[in-house]
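hey all, quick one before standup. I had two proteins in the batch that finished overnight and I want to keep them in one place so we stop losing track of which output belongs to which input. First protein below, input sequence then structure tokens straight from the run.
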Amino acid sequence: MMNVYLVRHGETEFNIAKRIQGWSDSPLTEKGKEKVAQTGQLFQAAHIQFDAVFCSTSFRAEHTTNIILDAVQQNHLNINKLDELREFHFGQFEGKDGNDLHRLLAKQNGFGDDVHAWLKAYRYGNQHLLAQSIQSLDASAENEQLFNQRLQRAWYKIIGQGLPESNILVVSHGMSIVAMLKAIDAQSTIYKSPPNASVTHLTFSPQQGLRLQSKVGEALLD
């Protein structure tokens, strides 16, 4: 059975400033680097060695990957950088204030000034209201269907290169991870990014496909 360890990148300057990242980028904070190193040390303590490594083409994901590989003393491994693992593209909202965006979306979706009610509605809803609302405001933002399709292509590449009894490290982004997990099990998580540097453990076999083995975003390295 293939083990896949899906990790969100470390905390970044944009995360701290609550700015929209998407396809834009910002460096990891010092705290972010430390937390990623701790995640790597958890892999090391659990005696998990990787047979293949994948990350998105965003620098924050690549930096996170290198810190983890350094912690497990596997810097020699080739990192497969995939465009398909990138974050959702926010169009004109890239780099903008996230709080301003949610105030705009609250009004657009009939919640007036009640941002809390909007956040609850989209996070616990059965549809990706955030992605749908952004795309309706800006046609240059990513289409949700195409977003999900490229993430599916990423899985084809990851699984295609893995061996039946291999350990695979995959470093990606908050919305991307949520979308990937929703595609496996719609009830597995809400529409809220897992914590930075957290791990979600999946398994894959031809008979059972991809299956969730840990709580989303928790470093449970069983």
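OK second protein, same deal, sequence then tokens:
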Amino acid sequence: MRRAWIISIGTELTLGQSVDTNSAWLSQQLAALGIRVERHVTIADEHAPLVDVLRQSAGSSDLVVVTGGLGPTDDDLTRAALAEAANTRLERDQAALERIRAFFAKRNRPMPERNCVQADVPIGGRSLPNDRGTAPGVFIAMCGTAIYALPGVPFEMKAMFEAQVAPEIRTAAKGRVVRSRVVRTFGRPESEIGEQLSDLMARGRNPEVGTTADMGDIGVRINAIADSAEACDALLEREEREVRRRLGPAVYGRDADTLAVAVGRMLAERGQTVSVAESCTGGMLGAILTDVPGSSRYFLGGVIAYANEVKIKRLDVPAELLRRHGAVSEETAAAMAAGARAAFESTYALATTGVAGPDGGSPEKPVGMVCFGIAGPASVRARTIRYGETLPRGVIRHWAARTALNLLRMELG
């Protein structure tokens, strides 16, 4: 097995009423088993389209994992669609039916007659026991493609995959291993990083390198394929070293690291502390810092100084400075940072003040303009970044909070 599709079934998914987390989890599990997922398909609870996509996937991949549509109601169509796609019919699996009856009996509940349909399996396929719920899974081979249909409930799907599907896939994959790593960067445009890594991102390489962007946070994905975990890790280590060498100080961490984790680690190692003074970010900077367990070791507190009166009274920003330069200015940002550092007696302090929009901008200070202050033992500095007038308010605020953390990271070296 080398190529796979994942098919998620549910009108609630196609309407955006629920988020498909199953596909992401399954892709990670399959990659670890040496299977490359080529396509995610999300389809509504409609019989004919589902039959079509099942037939298409069976002719285009080695493995298909389907989630959803195995319940007892009329809109649960997976079993019937599998049978029609395989040009066969359903038959009742008595052993599966007894397991469903036992599930209800163990909970002292009568089994509705409707649940009997969950024991139906296409002829030529087999039932997959579900220890967490009433819906058995289904396995069937079509056109040389192994198809596993699993419940859509995440905890049921995960347990069934790990206990029954993964061992079969592992045998069929014949020892191939796929492992991934993400090098985390901030502060450089994705296009610039792409230029610096262009040869590493060439198609057909092993390891494979690509990028993803999220409000200034650029992740450099490295996917390696080998015959053993050790060989995979060696490829990843070599490629990560080269990525770090090329990108230098833009790199702040790896895999699950965040800027807050990276900054917190640096402060904790030095025995230093930080406080914040926030205007346009409205507490987001403090929230991001305290998302990290153990942040009380280095984060002392903050002031949300939205109004000028609060900037004056709580942070000792001179009223004359505000009159002369305005709330959104480098001078005010620097004064806010200095005031927070003095108030909390912290090693460092960060400040944000800007125009998050959608209103309130001017030609001199447009929406998307944010001023940052950073106060430390040696100096108080400020800088301005313009994120653009077309970005939504929430994006500007989140981006600004991350930028403030990155400024501290660079200051800490």
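Flagging for whoever picks this up: The longest helix spans residues 154-173. The mean pLDDT is 94.
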